[in-house]
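lol ok so funny story. i was supposed to be doing the assay writeup but got distracted and ended up predicting the structure for this chain instead. priorities right. anyway since i did it might as well share w the group, maybe its usefull for someone
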Amino acid sequence: MSQFAPDSLRIRDMRLRILPDARAVSLAAAEIIEAAIREATAARGQAVLGLATGATPEGVYARLAERHAADELSFRHVTTYNLDEYYPISPVDPRSYRAYMHRHLFGRVDITPNRAHLLDGSVPESAVAEHCAAFEGWIESDGGLDLQLLGIGRNGHIGFNEPCGLSVDEARRLRTRLVELHPVTRADARREFGSAEAVIPTALTLGVATILAARSILILATGAHKAEAVAAALTGPVTAHLPASLLQSVSPRVTWIVDQAAASALPEALAAASPIG
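and the output, tada:
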């Protein structure tokens, strides 16, 4: 692990694991998710997962699908709620997150279709607020999220909770809603849309309050382009200008898993961090 050993540390009471590369991050995250499924299913008869999209989780879903194909993991008693969806967009549009989840996970495991929930990018604009409130209600009726999987944007967003000028208390109370995407987010979405100009500029996102209420939160980051955001979220002030920093407010329930490139802006913080175990 070179200068980053040991790989399990505490920074501001959040657990941090630094692994060699993106593949190692995916494998470690899949192991945590599998353990959460087994624990929650044994305790309550079902596991409720909050899921993310984007490039970082793809390896995680591939590993979970491999475990299912090997008859080592079942999703029959798993209920999922995804973080976000572009708006407006059809669920059958290949750029939609519904299509993404089908390609990378839902179509490869035995999850019951009516247990796989995504925000609907095709609801009429007049019904958006009602739909977002209903989504929150469904999560609550299922007993809340056992685990929320997150990535982090280059601008520090979680879900599509973008940097903003709200106070910390106001940001922590944000609920599921329609948002305008930050220019950095739109630039980074070129991979799916072909150009920044083609990116749909608005989206539905799970609120910060619902994310922070999860019984455990697992946030992943890979690549040097995420290093500054990772360092600021872990060691900087808690601020709505960097939404991932809000995770510090529920620090005992948060685990970060990053690769060495994403940890490259952390040397001083690592020197002061506490090893685990």
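The first strand starts at residue 8 and ends at 11. Residues 2-275 form a domain with the Rossmann fold fold (CATH 3.40.50.1360).
back to the writeup now i swear
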